[in-house]
Amino acid sequence: MRNADKTNYYWPVVDGQLWLPDGQPATEAPQGSHACFRMDLPETDNDYRHWICLSEKPLPLAPEHWLNLRDLMGSSTPDVWYWAGRALQIEHWWRRHRFCSACGSTLPEPAPERLTHGEMVRVCSSCQIHYYPVQTPCIIVLVTRGDYCLLALHQRSRTGTYTTLAGFVEAGERIEQTVVREVDEEVGVKIKNLRYADSQSWPFPSQLMLGFYAEYEAGSIEPQLEEITEAHWYHYRQLPKIPPRGTIARQLIDGFISEREAASHKSGERE
Ligand SMILES: [Zn+2]
Q1: What is the per-residue pLDDT across 116-144, written as a single tens digit (0 to 9) for each?
Q2: Which position has the higher pLDDT, 239 or 46?
Q3: CA distance 163 to 155
Q4: In a domain, 123, yes or no
Q5: Separation of 107 CA from ligand 1 center, angstroms?
Q6: Does residue 158 form part of some domain?
Q7: pLDDT per residue over 36-92, tens digit each?
Q8: Would you say 221 and 189 are in contact if contact means Cβ atoms under 8 Å apart?
Q9: What's the CA gap between 193 and 211, in Å, rounded?
Q10: Are residues 68 and 180 in the same domain?
Q11: In the prediction, which pLDDT does 171 show?
Q12: Could you tell me which residues come within 8 angstroms of residue 60 by beta carbon, excluding any fewer than 6 positions away?
């Protein structure tokens, strides 16, 4: 229910594109939306309401304000990034769940009021299977060796950026197993002393990145060439082109630099 005491923000999303005039959500509901429902959690008592507006057809909105989430990376506030990411993941779920994957029935559309006040779920009316928006867990890890860290140029990189290693959690795996396996697979290096750092929702389209540090234990770098063009140890003061701010990869690298700077400062004090 729209509430006059609250500030209402509207996030129109059509086919993976978000309408965001001047980098801020609209404060008026767009005309012609197919479904418009609240996406902030109903039980929280906030000063705002965030609404996602979905449509099968183009909406009559100024065309220059449609953008991809990648356009926002590094330039938006954490708040805008969060809501934009949430809106795009919800739209992705909505668009990809038109039919039941068990029995093939068309999934009925829940009433927007139900989505707003109840669970965000589409239910098959034939076999009762529930379809929720799902996040896919992935690990991302910075392997360190004293003042050096391991950065890789990925085959898919179009910007020549050297970054951390990452990969999807396989069925049945614990997160820690995934980290060890991915590092071994991608660069042939054994690691130890895993340390969880932070997480980041990565809505491309729906990953949850779990960020770790790990220390080098053994082995020499042998990149898996299907995925990685090259990988090297880099001194924290002589890094190649690294990912932009706003990414968890950059956060891990920046955290490592700070740690090494602090350690260097301490050893300087002792001398
Ligand atoms: Zn079904």
Answers
A1: 665 788 899 999 999 999 899 999 999 99
A2: 239
A3: 12
A4: no
A5: 8
A6: yes
A7: 888 887 666 678 889 999 888 888 889 999 998 888 877 788 889 899 999 999 999
A8: yes
A9: 14
A10: no
A11: 95
A12: 30, 31, 32
How much distance in Å is there from the Cα of 123 to the middle of ligand 1? Answer: 8
Contact 108, 116 (CB under 8 A): no
Residue 1 has pLDDT above 50, yes or no: no
Residue 16 maps to which CATH number? 3.90.79.20
Both structure tokens of 6: 């609250």
User: Is pLDDT larger for residue 77 or for residue 110?
Assistant: 77
Closest CA to 91 of 8, 33, 23: 33
Cα distance between the two ends of the chain: 65
Taking the C-alpha atoms of residue 95 and residue 241, their distance in angstroms, rounded to an integer, is 36
SS3 120: coil
Report residue 52 as tokens: 């996602």
CA of 101 to the centre of ligand 1 (A): 7
Q: How far is the CA of 90 from the centre of ligand 1 (A)?
A: 21
- Encoded tokens for 184: 């071994």
